[in-house]
Design brief:
With 159 residues, the protein is mainly beta. Helices cover 8% and strands 40% of the residues. It contains two helices and nine strands. The strands form two sheets. Strands 1, 2, 3, 4 and 9 form a five-stranded antiparallel β-sheet that branches. The longest helix is centred in the N-terminal third of the chain and has 7 residues, at 42-48. The structure holds zinc ion. Zinc ion (ZN) is lined by residues 148, 150, 152, 157, 159.
Length: 159
């Protein structure tokens, strides 16, 4: 069976960037997704189409097909009250900020008395991502999974 849109695909991945390993699913469980729903970056989703179980391949994904280009001027001053109180803010660290558009990963640039300057670029923006992929399982999605738009079961949503 070849992976197509609306199939549930389980795969292991190793992500590296400029020759350094960033993360690997081998330390956890395979990632399970409903293919074609945009739950992973576009370039990675495309690379899974037509693959078969047991296939092992490498794919290099440009920023446009991953987290986009960096915008150097994309820095914003945010009142401290918008950050979790328990969190100690240190320049260079990443944290999650709640915005009107949902949660957003930001990088702390400067910490003042009452305000914090944050870089709104995704930490992986502007980077070419190299994935080493191994396809573990491909199956048809259930009616319920298609209705919900995500995979269920181990590795997927458990609700
Ligand atoms: Zn569901």
């Amino acid at each position: 069976m070849k992976a197509e849109k609306n199939n549930v695909v389980s795969f292991h991945y190793k992500l590296s960037c400029a020759g350094e390993t960033v993360e690997s699913s081998y330390e956890r469980a395979p990632l399970v997704i409903l293919l074609g729903k945009g739950s992973i970056i576009p370039g990675l989703e495309k690379s899974l189409l037509g693959r078969t179980v047991g296939e092992d391949f490498n794919v290099s994904i440009s920023p446009e097909q991953a987290y986009g280009q960096r915008r150097e001027d994309w820095v914003q001053r945010v009142p401290k009250k918008y950050f979790r109180q328990s969190e100690r803010l240190v320049p260079g660290m990443t944290t999650v900020l709640k915005t009107q558009d949902g949660q957003r990963t930001v990088t702390i640039k400067k910490v003042g008395q009452t305000v914090v300057d944050v870089d709104l670029n995704h930490p992986m923006a502007g980077k070419t991502l190299d994935f080493d992929i191994e396809i573990i399982e491909i199956r048809l999605a259930t009616e319920e999974e298609l209705a919900h738009g995500h995979a269920h079961g181990p590795g997927g949503h458990t609700h």
